[in-house]
Amino acid sequence: MAPGICDVREVRGFHRELTVGRFDGANVIVTGGSSGIGRATVLAFAGEGAQVLASGRDEARLAKVKEEAPDPARVVTYVADLRDRDQVRGLIEDAIGSLGRVNALVNNAGIGYSDPVLEMPEEHWDETFAVNLDAPFFASRAVAKHMIESGGGSVVNIASTDAFQVESPQTHYNASKAALVMITRSFAHELGHLGIRFNCVAPGETMTPMLGDDLERPEFRSEYLKRIPMRRAAEPGEIAKAVLFLASDEASFVNGETLVVDGGQMTGDWYEPGDSPPVPEG
After folding, report:
1. Which H or E run contains 27?
2. Distant-in-sequence, close-in-space partners of 134: CB < 8 Å, separation ≥ 6
3. Alpha-carbon dihedral 169, 33, 237, 47, rounded to 10 degrees
4. What b/e sequence results for 118-152 when a residue is b if at least 16 CB atoms lie within 10 Å of its CB, and e otherwise?
């Protein structure tokens, strides 16, 4: 028996050969793959047997992610600025040319500014929607045309809990993520009969480099983590696991859904703030 291959088992009347890599032989595109959740997602897919095309704006950071993969040969890097629609379409075209069939697309690239609504520069509004909404729309549309011809696939968009609750001052970010959820549902509804599934992951607070730096400040950390019942932020790898689930055959009948991964943050708040459990030190 080959390494990593288990005995054939009967599952609900079907005989299935179980392997270690859920994505052996699959080809995946991950945008914003050079850091944070994108980096973790690239490494997770590659670790489970996929060939991954990781896009980003920083060639050096992409190269580092490739080096970190268990098998660097499984990661192809691609430099693109997704504020440019032509580069978005070029990314998908080149990925198909490089990988052949694309089984999954993860629209992870995103940006956010903290701008009071009355002082927000118009260019910040335009840039936020270009990256957070336009790029996933045009990438999804381009890859969907390919997936229809190649037998189906899965698209996972990275939204945010800010799609459902306001975090100020970032009206542009909140609105772009809320719209991304609805675009996902619209694609799922319109194209589901063609064998393509569209879903979202909505992360809560996650240990990206920016948040990690802020949590080093004790006064910020104590108040910030009170939002989360689990009293900690997510690790990027925890979000990546949710992405892989939605992209995999394990979620074969999940379509048009948003999986919130927030440690319970959106479940509610304490009526008496003093009843809230303390945030552990460290």
Report:
1. strand 27-30
2. 85, 88
3. 170
4. eebeeebbeebbbbbbbbbbbbbebbbebbeeeee
Distance between CA atoms of residues 203 and 236, nearest Å:
9
Residue 92 in 3-state DSSP? helix
Taking the C-alpha atoms of residue 104 and residue 248, their distance in angstroms, rounded to an integer, is 9
Q: Strands 14-16 and 9-11: what pairing?
A: antiparallel
Give residue for tokens 């045309």.
145
* Tokens linked to 270: 């304490």
Can the peptide bond before residue 72 be classed as cis, meaning omega within 30 degrees of 0?
A: no
Residue with tokens 């670790």: 47
pTM of the model: 0.90
Query: What tens digit of pLDDT does each residue of 223-241 get?
Result: 889 999 999 999 999 999 9
Q: Token digits for 193?
A: 């009969």
Residue-wise pLDDT tens digits, 182-227: 999 999 999 999 999 999 999 999 998 768 788 888 888 888 899 9
CB 170 within 8 A of CB 274: no
Task: Locate 169 and state its tokens.
Answer: 């001052």
- Residue 255 predicted with pLDDT over 70: yes
Alpha helix locations (H) across the chain? Answer: 36-47, 59-68, 85-99, 122-129, 135-150, 171-191, 209-214, 218-224, 236-247
In the chain, what is the greatest distance between 2 CA atoms, to the nearest angstrom?
66
CA 213, 216, 222, 228 torsion: positive or negative?
positive
Is the pLDDT score of 264 beyond 50?
A: yes
Provide the residue count of the chain: 282
Q: Look at strands 196-203 and 14-16 and give their pairing.
A: unpaired
Q: What is the pLDDT of residue 107?
A: 98
Q: How far is CA 10 from CA 21, 43, 253, 280, in A?
A: 19, 31, 20, 46
**For residues 142 and 13, what is the distance between their CA atoms, to the nearest angstrom?**
37
Residues involved in catalysis: 173
